Amino acid sequence: MDGDLGDFLRSRRARIRPEEVGLPSHGRRRVPGLRREEVAQLAGVSVDYYIRLEQGRGPGGPSRTKSGGVSDAVLDAVARVLRLDETEHAYLRAVARPTRKKAGPRREAAPRVRPGVQLLLDSMDRTPAFVLGPRMDVLAWNALADALSGYSRMAPARRNIVRQLFLEPEGRDLYPDFAAVASQSVAHLRLNAGAHPDDPALRDLVGELSLKSEDFRRLWADHQVKACMYGVKRVRHPVAGLLTLPYESLVLPETPDRTLVAYTPEPGSETAERLALLASWAGTSA
């Protein structure tokens, strides 16, 4: 995932018209949006400094922090010029100053989730709930989530939200709003990639999806970043039919790279009734 910083900055300056920031727009422009020189001027840094930043060549000078990274002041100024939202701003900081983990002795694989988390999932017998890792792998689930998505019947490698969307034959049919779900999922994966720059499995996943899926390759190249922590998904289930599923996501405190996701349909709604029938059909206790 090398080059993410430069690609991200170029994609963000390309979406801003000069007149939006008080610059003249007349004359021939070889690039869409703002030029690098214009970003540098508006951010109050030298052109050379900004070019080095965009090229990932480690700009030097007084705007470096004691640890050698780009200062908050410079990143904040660039974020202001490029009109980044809060999530994009956090992503810019992550990719501009990646935290590299020191290699240490190999450890045995930790449990996918703590037993207490699995007990929590199992206690949510009227709510489909599961835990996602940073690569959007499904690490644990409860009975109703299994009835909904069939995780227990999948090989471990298939229990991945983005892999299911882009590489599984049923991925496109599962979501009536496929384009929106796909875009949000890729934006969330890119946010996670910025937070875990040294994760080889995540890098391999992005490489495989880019090679095998034109849709994923196009969305990844768009450099959208978004934390999808709540919202609504529509799912077409072969038994329960069309389900409208609001969802809420909670970061697990001791493992902040893992997120518990719960679908929360309105009690008494058609979707809630269909989930109850699905649970009965699957033999759960909801």
Written overview of the protein:
The chain is of the alpha+beta class. It has helices at residues 4-13, 36-43, 47-54, 72-81, 86-96, 115-123, 143-149, 161-167, 171-174, 178-195, 200-212, 214-221, 270-282, and strands at residues 129-132, 138-141, 230-237, 241-251, 259-263. Strands 2-1-5-4-3 form a five-stranded antiparallel β-sheet. Strand 4 and strand 5 (259-263) form a beta hairpin. Residues 103-110 have low confidence and may be disordered.
Q: How far apart lie the N and C ends?
A: 43 Å
Total count of helical runs of at least 4 residues: 13
Fraction of residues in helix: 40-55%
Order of helices and strands: HHHHHHEEHHHHHHEEEH
Global structural class: alpha+beta
Query: Regions with pLDDT < 50 over 5+ consecutive residues?
Result: 103-110
Radius of gyration: 22 Å
Shape: elongated
Write down how many β-strands occur, each being a DSSP E stretch of 2 or more residues.
5
Average pLDDT over all residues: 86
Adjacency order of strands in the biggest sheet: 2-1-5-4-3
What fraction strand?
5-15%
Largest sheet: 5 strands, antiparallel
Task: Provide a brief overview of the structure.
The chain is of the alpha+beta class and 286 residues long.
